[in-house]
Amino acid sequence: GSASEPAICLICDTRRLWCCETARAQALKEAASATMPPALTPSLQPDVLFINRNWTDCAFWHNLLGSLFGKHTENRTLGEEASRLAMRNMGWLANQPDWLKEELLACSRLRQFSRGQYAYHFEDGPGGMYGVANGSFGVLVPSGGEMIMCHVMGPGAWFGWGPILTGGQRSLSFRAVEESRALYVSLSDLGTIGARNPDLYRLLGALGEASMNAMTARAVGDLLIPSCERRIAAVLARLGSEATGKPPATLRLAQSVLGQMSNASRVRVNRALREFESAGWVSVRYQSIRVTDVASLEAFARREA
């Protein structure tokens, strides 16, 4: 951008992005609005132009940007900065003091994970923490000599903070359930931030309490539901409500994994999903489940037997 006008980032689900000045971003929004369906029109915010993730035609954006602004720039640095801008307004960090936002994001580095790749393993030593920029990560707990997925975290979630507070080994594993990106803040950088402002540890403690409520209290509560079908509905409602903050949410889960999370056989999971799909609560695809009605799933899960 110019000296008189701040630069603005254009984000398409944090994967395809460009930089331009605010006035040019407004021109892009107007040009796109004339071409795209109203539901997919980009939204312009003070620092970021967000493109609806359902409209990911790269050729369309390449041609439109070229016609409006000429040659555009796309590189890792922009991807990292755009992820930082997006993370400021998502999840836990959105509700934190400005000093913490600035400190964490300034030293963060963007890391990419392929499906099935681990960020941390059970009993790993202390390390830094991650903030999910896009995609999702499964939380795995030890059970019966194997690691079982108990929860899935989507964009805006932060994990890896446990050993920062305890200094001990990791009690959980974290694995990407789809191609994902996360901002990483190293242990040494966290130590530097904490030395400057010890309130960091209180805020991380509060994050830990909130996260464990979702990953343990709610997961255990779901498993205590006696009805198999209602357990499955409870897990889907929990993951669907936390994946994006509002439905619909697409969960990149195989039915076998959903069965593990709800302590149900694959046959029971398949039967329940067919019933939920008929009711309009979910839409089932290969290796994914789209949750469209969290409220109905929750009501079904909590009703008396």
Task: Report what the structure shows.
With 305 residues, the protein is an alpha+beta fold. The chain has 12 helices and 15 strands. The strands form 4 sheets. A 4-stranded mixed β-sheet has the order 2-1-4-3, with helices on both faces. A 4-stranded antiparallel β-sheet has the order 5-12-7-10. Strands 6-11-8-9 form a 4-stranded antiparallel β-sheet. A hairpin with a 3-residue loop joins strand 3 (43-44) and strand 4. Helix 1 (22-33) packs across helix 2 (58-69) and helix 10 packs across helix 11. The radius of gyration is 21 Å and the shape is elongated. The chain starts with 6 loop residues before the first strand and ends with a helix. The relative contact order is 0.09.
Question: Top keywords for this entry?
Answer:
45% helix, 23% strand, disordered N terminus, 4-stranded mixed sheet, elongated, 305 residues, 4-stranded antiparallel sheet
> Which shape, going by the Cα principal axes?
elongated
Q: Span from first to last CA? A: 61 Å
Strand arrangement within the widest β-sheet reads 2-1-4-3
Poorly predicted regions are 1-22, 35-78
Structural class: alpha+beta
